[in-house]
Amino acid sequence: MNTTKSFSQAFNDTTYKLGGNGKRNIQVLIDALANIDENLASDMYGKGKLIEDFQDQMADYLGKDTAVFFPSGTMAQQIALRIWCDRKGVKRVAYHPLCHLEIHEQDGLKELHHIEPTLLADKNRLINLEDVQNMPKDIACLLLELPQREIGGQLPDYAELEAISAYCREQEIKLHLDGARLFEILPYYQKSAAEICALFDSIYVSFYKGIGGIAGAILVGDKDFTEESKVWKRRHGGDLISLYPYIISSEYYFKQRVNKMEQYYEESKELAALYNQCHGVTTMPTEPVSNMFHVHFEIPKDQLEPILTQVYETTGVGLLPYLSNSSESTCYSEVSIGDLYAEVPKDKVKIAFGRLDAELNKM
Ligand SMILES: Cc1ncc(COP(=O)(O)O)c(C=O)c1O
Q: Tell me, what is an example of a GO biological process annotation in this record (predicted)?
């Protein structure tokens, strides 16, 4: 096959990209600040109208008493679990084997807080009610991640979620939501954010996933909980003198995108169907339940990269920015739909998938 460019170069050079909201460059901040009054007072160490108004707005949207803005979800969630463990006097929590705390945080929970996790369920499936009922008794908090990112953004049925929540309340186990992508799942459940949050004692949401901001997180819960989280935020060095670039951009992109989640969800189903029509390609889930899904290929990365590179170069359509091997003979990638998908002419998408399928059929 005649390919001249590297895979990532070929992707970057495409005119149209099927995933995301666009480049993560400085323009993202410039756009967010464009219409802000330059005399607006900065927040100072977690206080001031700018941060307090946004926290109130988010507490209201998520249906909880109070909210605290954090620089990162990593910090917010470790703190949430620490508080629930301290309250119960038990240094044990439960979560999925592939949750962010277990695989992406360098063991922060264990090293900084000496909290040990019980890993629930096989890593390739969701936690269910039975897993929760069979947990050891000495659990201070169960963390659920919705959607479960590392397995393609799968979601439990709402009834299962309600049953897990009721069981935890009955057993006096706190329930925390890793809702990094909470806004993205509302169209599937056909529920408001507040309805889903009502099932949980504490919730974290992110402003840079589907919302597409720069960074930043909100932690919500009752007043005692959030007040205590502010003390821990200071201990963690997260009480930056000013967080306004993150707060302003979070609010700006929240307003711009929170009501587009239904559109992204529909587009994600449309795109997954196109992948599933290609030879040797499947998506997980088969029909997505949010704006994200994983695409699995029955050939290894080093064989797929030149095929995709040629599709990108000949059609101008960038399907996937990267691939990861899942075994010696298979690879996969993650898709997250944002603003860009709607900008791609449908005939170009069709041509790109036609080329991909034709090439895969030759393998
Ligand atoms: C599911 C999930 N939880 C938590 C986090 C942590 O967020 P942050 O990068 O703000 O620390 C991430 C980040 O990718 C995530 O995907």
A: glycine biosynthetic process
Best residue among 106, 177, 202, 206 to mutate for probing ligand 1, ranked by most atoms within 8 Å of CB: 206
Q: Does 254 reside within a domain? A: no
How many CB atoms lie under 10 A from the CB of residue 227? 12
pTM (predicted TM-score):
0.96
At residue 139's C-alpha, the angle toward residues 137 and 143, to 5°, is 135
Are both 335 and 206 inside the same structural domain? no
Residue 191 belongs to some domain of the structure? yes
Same-domain status, 194 and 117: yes
- The per-residue pLDDT for 334 is 98
User: For position 283, what pLDDT does the model report?
Assistant: 98
What tens digit of pLDDT does each residue of 77-96 get? 999 999 999 999 999 999 99
Which residues of the chain fall below pLDDT 50? Answer: none
Q: Which residues pair with 294 in a beta bridge?
A: 284, 334
> Considering the chain, what is the average pLDDT of its residues?
97
Query: How many domains are there within the chain?
Result: 2
Q: For the sheet with 324-325, list strands across it.
A: 281-284, 292-297, 331-336, 324-325
pLDDT at residue 3, as a whole number = 54
Structural domain that includes position 336: 7-24+260-361
Considering the domain architecture, whether residues 142 and 17 belong to the same structural domain is answered as no
Is residue 187 domain-shared with residue 221, that is, in the same domain? yes
Let me know whether 96 and 125 are in one domain. Answer: yes
Instruction: Report the alpha-carbon distance of residue 19 to residue 339 in Å, rounded.
Output: 8
**What is residue 4's predicted lDDT score, i.e. its pLDDT?**
61
Name residues contacting ligand 1 (CB within 6 A). Answer: 72-74, 100, 145, 149, 178, 180, 206, 217
Q: How far apart are CA 69 and CA 67, in angstroms?
A: 7
